[in-house]
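Morning. Coffee machine broken again, so started the prediction first thing and wrote up yesterday's gels while waiting. Chain of 611 residues, entered below exactly as on the submission form.
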Amino acid sequence: MTLRRTLLAAALPALLTLAALGAYAVFVVEQLGEQVDDILDANYRSIVAVRTLRDVADDVERMLLSPDVAAGAPAIAARLEAFAEALAVQRANLTEEGEAEVTRDIEAACAAWERVARAAAAMPPGPSRVEAYVEVVHPRAEAIRAAARPVVAVNQDAILAKASRAGALIERLRGQLVTASLACFGLVVVISVLVAGRVSRPLAALTTAVRRIGEGDLDRPLPPPGGTDEVTTLQAEVGRMLDALRAYRRSSLGELLAAQQLAQAAIDSLRDPVISFRPDATVGQVSQPAAEVLGIDPAATDPLAPVPAPLREAIERARDTVLAGRGPVVPDGLEAAIPVVLGGAARHAQVHATPTASPTDGVGIVGATILVRDVTSLHAAAALKDDLLSTVAHELRTPLTSLRMAVHLCLEQVVGPLTERQQELLVAAREDAERLHALVEGILAVSRIEGGGLAARRRPVPLAELVEAALAPARVPAADRRVQLACEGPLEGVVEVDGECAALALGNLVHNAIRHTPEGGRVLVRASPSAPGWVRLEVRDDGPGVPPEHRARLFSRFYRVPGSPPGGTGLGLSIARDVVHAHGGEIGVDGAPGQGSAFWLTLPLARGGPA
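Came back before lunch.
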């Protein structure tokens, strides 16, 4: 049976019941109407007719007593015609028991009264007609009234009896209607429940089956057919869809395995270890080098347990950063390489992390891919280059000092007077020598920092003392450029640092700000709380700001932003970065182009000292 026929079959008994209830209600209304008609036809007309007889008698008596000529025989005759009509109505409406006898008394009284009334009406107005009224007409009218009372009483009693019977009929019919309505309601509810169950049970079973299919359970069979034709048809279509999905799974399973093997072969072909993580931070696939070099086993309870602690911490930190949606992790040069021992040999590694985008929308993150890059050879080459630079710087330091002294003595004219042209050449030579001296000192400072031992030289240093040590060498160049130096924020804290290196790092930021601030500008050094146990020092200037495209390489060695003022070596910010990182802090730059720059760094507070 179709769903339409089922619904029609369910609605048909309710419609038939409602039709029967409506027909019964019509019958009830007709019964009540007959009761009302019976009261009107049988009793109310008699009461009205008797009342008309009395009213006509009263009107005729007033006319007989009136001295007005207009109240003569014609007017009285007109009222007597109404009297005769009312008497005819009563004579024809004898419906109650005993009403015929009292009606005959009324007819006799009316006949006697009508005869004397017509005789009195023929008299002219005056004492004689009044006398006739008093002696003859009025007594006959009282006889009419006396005879009319039994008629009224009989009909009133009949009206009360019929009204009582009508009330009882109404109560009985009301109970019958209520019973029929409740029966109709119960029948409709029962039929609706039965039909709803017949339609909903197979649909619920089919819905559960479709939900399991959506969850990937294609092996469980569908429930047996049942319900209406439409539900059976839908179930058949779902069955065909399930068969197609099973066939697709069987046909695509080999392709999926081939694709997985190809992906595994691709990552195995890489020399560096590759690790993929799922969105819940568990290990997915690992490359063969990751299994051989790092000892990672995806089936183990803790796959990263064999990885050396520093490298494991870097891998987990990069993984969490990517899965949190903060973008890829790219190491900042070889300085960020992690020293580890792998296979009994000292190695240096970098951790790169990239998010795995969702294949559906390309936006959501469904995992993270970690590449552990072996940069041992690059690190060795960089160390060799640094050693060479340090050696060259040491070798240049002594002759450069002699050269600077010789130029200074010549400019002071200790060895003899100079011409104006000779002084210009020596001034230019002195500036080049000073620039070369700053470069050599920067290279040597980098060598001292990279040589280690900075942690052993850390001690509690008052923050005010550190800031003053950084600002003191900058006051002269600031005054030469008419740049105002100012401090802001609480400077009562105590930091645990290498005082000389920390002052050098902060001083480099201050010198950099002075060099980029126009004349009449201002350089502000501000101290503020950072994370618990750390203080943040910020150097803000009024310069042109750092374009966003240059910020990634701003702290690299020998890198200078195009268009920067002359005189820099490209090592000041690099030295500041190395010093801050050696203390475990962070360094960065804020601000927008055209609104100045705000270079900042964080330093650790001394334990037990004032914050």
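The chain has four domains: 33-174, 270-374, 375-451, 457-611. Going to sketch it on the whiteboard this afternoon.
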